Amino acid sequence: MTKIEFHRAFGRIIEILISFFFLLTVFPIIYIVMAVIVKRRSAGPAIVTSIRRRDDGYEYDALTFRVDNKDSFIARMPQLINLLRGDIPLTITATYDTGSIVAPSIPLDPSTQEQTTNNIENNVDIEQDFRS
Q: What pTM value is reported for the model?
């Protein structure tokens, strides 16, 4: 086993352990609270999906709570299921050949694609400033 394969395997084990821990302890409580809040505000499911594409082209359904602030930690708690399934990494991955940071997923919704592209470009500019 090479060093890179070892790091990937070790990282995957850590991802599984972390997601199991949170899914078995914290997530049920948060799910019940969020489901009650969402049901009191409107009809529909507490968890919604959106199609995302990783940098390697793999498409998956990203899970989130149906809340107003999509960027909050609570809204993203269902993504622990995506983490457990191996759809997303625990952290942003770094490529070995260039050392540049690669976003783990890009939304396929056309209305948010331009905003995401701008955010990624801005992050690259910030990253280049730190390297100087």
A: 0.61
Are 60 and 51 in contact by the 8 Å Cβ rule? The answer is yes
The two structure tokens encoding residue 86: 């191996």
What's the gap between Cα 7 and its chain centre? 20
| 109 Ramachandran zone, left/alpha/beta (phi>0; psi -120 to 50) | beta
> From start to end of the chain, where are the E strands?
47-53, 59-65, 93-94, 101-102, 106-107
Query: Is residue 7 classed exposed, middle or buried when 0-12, 13-18 and 19+ CB atoms within 10 A define those classes?
Result: exposed
What are the tens digits of pLDDT across the range 68-109? 776 778 888 898 999 999 998 876 544 444 444 444 454 555
Cβ atoms 78, 63 nearer than 8 A:
yes
* Angstrom distances, CA of residue 36 to CA of 13, 78, 80: 33, 16, 20
Please count the other Cβ atoms lying within 10 Å of the Cβ belonging to residue 29.
9
- For the chain, the domain total comes to 1
Pairing of strands 106-107, 59-65: unpaired
* Structural domain of 112: 3-131
